[in-house]
Each structure stands twice: as structure tokens, then as C-alpha cells.
Amino acid sequence: MRWLFVLVGAAILAAVAAVVVVLPSDRPTKPVARQTSPSPTSTFPTPKVTEFTDPCGTFDTVESAPYAVTGYWVTPTSNPCTWRKQLQEIHAVGGDTVIRIGYGLQYRSVDDDGEILKDGERDSLYKDCQEDGLSCHDAAERDLKKANPGNRVARTYVYRTDEAFGDGLFRCAEMEHRVVSGRRVYYRILAPMDGSDDATCDFTKPRPYDLIVVAGAVKNAQGEFKDSLSQLLDLGDQFGIHIFPALPLAPRQHDNQTRANPHHIPTLTTLTRRILQDYGVRFAGRASLGGVYQPFEVQMGATLASNPTLQVYAGQHDIVEQELPGKPILISPYLDARKRVGFGQTPKQVAAAFKALALTGVGIIAPQDSRGTGKVGLFWPDQRDDEVDERLRPVVGESTYGTAYHGSTRDYYREMALVREELLKGGREVDLWANVEAFEPAGDPPCAAQGSRGKTDKKRLDQAVTMAGRYVQKIVSYMWSDFMTCGSPSLESEIAKDWARPIAVDAIRRGRDVQDGIEVRGYNLKGGTVTVEWESGARDLDVAAVGWLDEDPLEELPEGMQTAWVPFDWAQVPPDAWVKVGVRLASGQEATERLHVRITS
């Protein structure tokens, strides 16, 4: 690969940051094969203007503090001015991707009056869905029976959103339509229970049907039903940001909430198809639509291949290919490296799970680094006997890294990158992103309305970026809402003040012509000095004076990554010694996390 190197000479000497494993080097020529999964476009919409004014105020579109993290999750909001403020803030720190948290499809029962229930009580969100004095459920069943007395509503589902869909959501106009009641618009969908979604719209043959009631957008102050996704895509055009709207989540198994319930997957398929058909009509040509996000999270592990949630990914991938060709599905599974729990997984087991996920056809896999939840640690191989960060103790107790975890996040991303390379050779396109968690397991006060998770700091976020290394194509973070804006100072303000600090992510031994040397990759390396330290010595090597700098990242590397090379005689370092490599700028700013490198012979 272009981002991995083989060093060939009279003797082969190689070292990679934090690992003693030599990785394959120059990217092989891609085989000629059918692209089996859409790959994200690298072309981002260009901001329309440097500044614009609307009823929410005046906003600038200047990228003032570009950081290594270039994508963030956001939560839905009913206030359009909040969207504008968030996208302005995200773009200011280099963000070019926004991923929306979504909602789930839910199976519901109804009472004798056809009212939709929640936990045994009438659900207030759907009580206003009325037609001709009947509940939407009873009205749908009435219309079905008019077509054939043997028809019936067998199952009822609900889905909530703040979107206002177009006519592309409907397939059979005589049975499906909008229901405007009060300030909200509802959508009534009727389809066969097997997910076939019969396009003939023949209701004359008696059969059971699924009813899906979608609670959609609410009227704004002007009495209009504004579509939230249209608004987000417009903002994406304004700021030059890709938007990833969320697909519906599958209903979960009652006895295992981490798995999709296979009984309801056909209905989820119907709803997904309808939503994406509507997107295809309204948004297929929008540059700001980067793809779609499936929010159902799974743990990456040895048993993942048998998880029915993979059926959800595969089915939705097929629909996306049909309705939004070229737009990838993004998923973000999580890691758990803890040794003291029965479900902790090794890097090899996670790599096997990466392959299983990629084979569903999803275009982007962005594994959570799981440092924020404490399920994985950030450490180097020579730090296995060190005590864990005290912020991890609520999760793993007082322990060493080696006792607490099967590996560091770096070990996991490295193994997944190797599997990705194998898949590319076989013609399977998939991107590996790193989702670095911008929070701590606990905080006082907590940052979110629910749970105990608290604020982290830029130093720790820099460390997470370092550990992702050169193994990923992009770095994103969960999440902007709550965690980036929490506390004083907020993580957002820390980045704005300290964005220019260098971050070294990888160092290898690499010769140039007849000179031995060291190649460093990272962010903000321009004007820097590479610092090399080992037990019996140290060197400071000015890149501009003695080496060279390539400021243009390769296609496979994250935005903003640079490559520096300086001459260095590795013979002065004792065999198998650990070397710490950092970068320091003339301003005095220095990478807060140094790379730990060992050369094996």
C-alpha cells in the first residue's frame, strides 16, 4: 500500500511505531474486479461563501483551526439555528463530515380502539394520528377490508423522525398517504409482512399486512413542515460538509439487546427501501449527501458472523446500491479488549469481525476506539506493566495495562488494516475509519443528560489520534453534541487554541539513497524538529535543515497528514532498544504523545 513500506537493501531492517511486526509495504495494484461496495467520495462540497446571514444570525465558513479529527456525530435538534451553530463550530476546527444519530423502528401493540400502546399505555406521540374519527390503525384496516374482507393489519410498527418525506415514501396511493393532524404530519405505510413490498399494489387477494406509522416533522412558526435532512444538506453545501443521515435501527431481541430481532427485519427492509427511494428522488445528486449511517452498534468479536444484525447491514446495503448508487453505508461497531470479562476480544478476533462486516457490503467501517468507555486502553508495548490511566479505573480497577487489556487500540487498528488490505486485493472496497471517543468513562459533572460520561481533554484526544496511526483513512469522533462543548474550558475551545500542536502518528526506519534515516508521519510537522531519544542517547533533527517534508497526504491517509524524513544512524541504538520519537516546533509546541519504536534485527 502507499501508506505501508518495505525496505529492501543488503539487509532488511524495518521498524514501525509501537509494533515489532513488519507490515507489507507499497500498495499492490488493485485487481480488476467488480466494485462490490460503494466507496466514499473524497470530493467535498466547497463552501458557497466565506460568510452568510439568515434569520439565525451571521455565520462564517472559514476553517480557522483545522484539527486531525474531521468528522463528528450530532444529535437531532428541533431548532434549526442549533444546526447552523454546530456546523459552523465543526467546520471551524476542520470538520468536513457530520453523522446524525437516528431513531429505531419499534413493534407495538394496539388496544381495542386501535390506539398505539407504549409500555401498556396509549402513546401520546401517536394519539393524534386520526382519520375520519378513527385511529390510523383502524382506518388502515377499514381500507384494507374494503379491498377484500379477508385483509387485516397483522402487526403495527412505529417510527419517529423530524423529517418531512416526499411522495417517494409511498408505493400504493390508494392505501398509503400523509395524515396531517395538529402540528405534526404522519405517514401511513402498508406492506406485506415478508418484506417483499409488492409493487403491484394488488390488495384484492386476502392477506395479512404490516402497518408502519411514521411520526414526522412538526410545523414551524410559519406553519410549514420543514424537512430536517433538507436543512442539513443545505448547511452542508454552505459549509462544505458531507452529511450522513441515519437509517432506521432494527428492533432488538428481547433477551439480547445487542442483536437485531430477525422476525422484524423484513419490515425494517420495507421501511428502509421506502425512505431511500424518497432520498433517491430528492437527494441523489446532492454533493453534500456523503452516504447513510446505520446506527445499530455491534461488538466486534469472534461470534459476530452469526449475529442477525449483519443481515440488516447486507439488506440495507443492497437497497442503497439500488436507490443511492455510489453512496456508502457507514457503521461504527465497538471494541472490548478487557481481559477480565468473558466477552473481551483479541486483535485477531476483531480483525476477523472486520472481515465479516466488510462482506455485508458496507462502504465504511469506523470502529469506536472504546477508550472513552474504558473498554480499550491507549498504551505502547513497553508500557504493558504501567498502571492504567486513573480515569480508566472506574472500568478496569487498579491494574496494569497488560493485566487489564488484550491490546491497545493501535494493535486493533493495525490488524484491521491488514484485513482491509486483503479485501482490497480481492476487489472488495471498504474504508477503515477511526472513531475516537471524545469523553471519559465518568465525569463530575457528567456531560450528557443520561449516564456518567464526562469531559476529556485535548492531550488525551491527541493520544487517541496517535494510536490510530497510519492505519486508517479518516478520523471521526463521537460526538460533538454534549462532549465537545462540555465543561470549561470545553474540548472545542482547547482545540481552537492548540490545534497547531504537532501530532506524530508513525515512525519507521527508512533509508534514502545511501543514508540511513527515519520517516515520521503526522500532523503539523512543518517547521518541526524530530526528536529521537533512547536510554543512552538523544538527537534533535531539524527537518528543514537536514531532511525533507511532504505536505500532501496520500489518498489512503487522513486529511492533513504529512510525511517528514531526517537522516539518522540507527547503528548507534542498541539492538532491541525502545526509542521514543517526537516532534517539536520552533514555537515550543511539542507532540504530547511520543512514538515508541523498536528495531528488530
In short:
Residues 29-48 are annotated as: Disordered. By secondary structure, this protein is α/β, with parallel strands linked by helices. The chain has helices spanning 80-92, 136-147, 228-239, 265-283, 309-323, 347-358, 393-396, 401-404, 409-425, 458-468, 480-484, 491-498, 543-546; strands at 51-54, 57-60, 71-74, 97-100, 106-108, 117-118, 121-122, 130-131, 134-135, 152-160, 177-181, 184-192, 208-218, 242-244, 292-293, 329-331, 364-365, 431-437, 474-478, 503-509, 517-523, 528-534, 537-542, 548-550, 561-567, 578-585, 595-598.
Describe the overall structure.
By secondary structure, this protein is of the alpha/beta class. Helices cover 23% and strands 22% of the residues. The protein has 13 helices and 27 strands. The protein has an 8-stranded parallel beta sheet with strand order 14-4-3-19-18-17-16-15. Strands 5-10-13-12-11 form a 5-stranded mixed beta sheet. A 4-stranded antiparallel beta sheet has the order 20-21-25-24. A hairpin with a 2-residue loop joins strand 8 (130-131) and strand 9 (134-135). The protein is elongated.
Helix content: 10-25%
Output the structural class. Answer: alpha/beta
Looking at the structure, what is the overall shape? Answer: elongated
Radius of gyration based on Cα positions? 26 Å
Low-confidence stretches are 1-37
Trace the largest sheet across and list its strands.
14-4-3-19-18-17-16-15
Number of strands: 27
* Share in β-strands: 15-25%
- Number of contiguous helices: 13
For the record, the CATH architecture of the largest domain stands as Alpha-Beta Barrel
Could you tell me the CATH topology label of the largest domain: TIM Barrel
Q: Major β-sheet, in short?
A: 8 strands, parallel
What is the CATH superfamily classification of the largest domain?
Glycosidases
Average residue pLDDT: 91
CATH class annotation of the largest domain = Alpha Beta
* Integer tally of domains: 3
